[in-house]
Design a protein that fits this description.
The chain contains 4 helices and 16 strands. By secondary structure, it is α+β, with helices and mostly antiparallel strands. It has one domain. The chain starts with 14 loop residues before the first helix and ends with a strand.
Length: 288
């Protein structure tokens, strides 16, 4: 089950590139598409093209799913691919399911260093846990919790294994945001980077709070930050919404028929000058 990129590299894989992949596979049992380094829509389209074509050739296919990838200051590998909280990962999950892939790998690219991790960053998550910890090399500082990516993936894992969209039996929400609202980075000299220098990105990095809501029935989500509130009427099922970020502590309230069923404050505040997360996402969740 090798991975290799076709001659077009990390660009979208279409029918022409699939034929090239199949030819290079020879007698190998199948193909693993690494993905990760690309926008979720591009990875999804490549996954669907590969899955269909490899199946007709009798080859096994392993599809990729990635929470968020960004290179840290290390030469030319300083880049990012925006996933808008969970919604990008959900797009890749749904493509993997639609492709008929035999396996799915949650791809981690150097894991801690490049933000693709889903493992908990703390051995035990005690009450009052901040969702950040120093777990790796000093130059990377504290890393931020990604456990919401893994917890939310439970839904898609069950869908993938059963080939049937699972029923949602409890109300849950998962939230994702950066620790600064972007736009106030400090530029260094050519070729130099620090935590406040944004990585290269084909699309602008998101400066929003992203919330993915898993509901048993319709409800209203209220996202409050710095005295401003945004309200969303959310249907039953899975919905991804976003709210503008600014300095302050976010609060997430889910209401149904006038009753509050979830009320949760973000564990990490957003500030104007906290670049300690190096443009990584902080994530957490709440349920009823």
């Amino acid at each position: 089950m090798p991975h290799f990129f076709p001659a077009t590299g990390e660009r979208q894989i279409s029918a022409r590139e699939v034929a090239q992949v199949a030819q290079r596979l020879g007698s190998a049992n199948g193909y693993f598409y690494f993905g990760a380094a690309g926008a979720p829509d591009m990875i999804a389209k490549s996954t669907e093209a590969l899955g269909a074509a490899l199946k007709t050739r009798g080859k096994v296919f392993m599809a990729p799913v990635t929470p968020y990838y960004r290179g840290l200051p290390a030469g030319t590998n300083y880049r990012a691919f925006e996933t808008n909280g969970l919604s990008g990962m959900a797009t890749e999950w749904e493509a993997a399911i639609a492709s008929g892939a035999t396996w799915v790998q949650i791809v981690t690219w150097n894991d801690w260093a490049e933000s693709t991790y889903v493992a908990p960053i703390e051995p035990v998550a005690p009450i009052g846990s901040t969702g950040r910890a120093h777990v790796y090399d000093d130059r990377f500082g504290d890393l931020l919790s990604h456990t919401a990516y893994l917890d939310a993936s439970e839904y898609y894992i069950r869908w993938f294994k059963s080939d049937s969209k699972p029923a949602i039996t409890r109300d849950r929400l998962f939230y994702f945001y950066r620790l600064n609202p972007l736009g106030r980075e400090r530029r260094l000299g050519l070729g130099a980077h620090d935590a406040s220098t944004p990585p290269r990105a084909q699309e602008p990095l998101s400066s929003q709070i992203h919330v993915s809501v898993f509901l048993t029935a319709p409800a209203m989500l209220v996202v409050t930050l710095a005295g401003s509130a945004m309200r969303f009427d959310v249907a039953a099922g899975v919905t991804h919404v976003s709210s503008n970020a600014r300095a302050g502590t976010s609060r997430f309230v889910l209401q149904r028929h006038g009753e509050t069923i979830i009320d949760k404050a973000g564990e990490q505040a957003i500030t104007d000058d906290d670049f300690s997360g190096a443009y990584n996402y902080f994530s957490a969740s709440a349920d009823a």
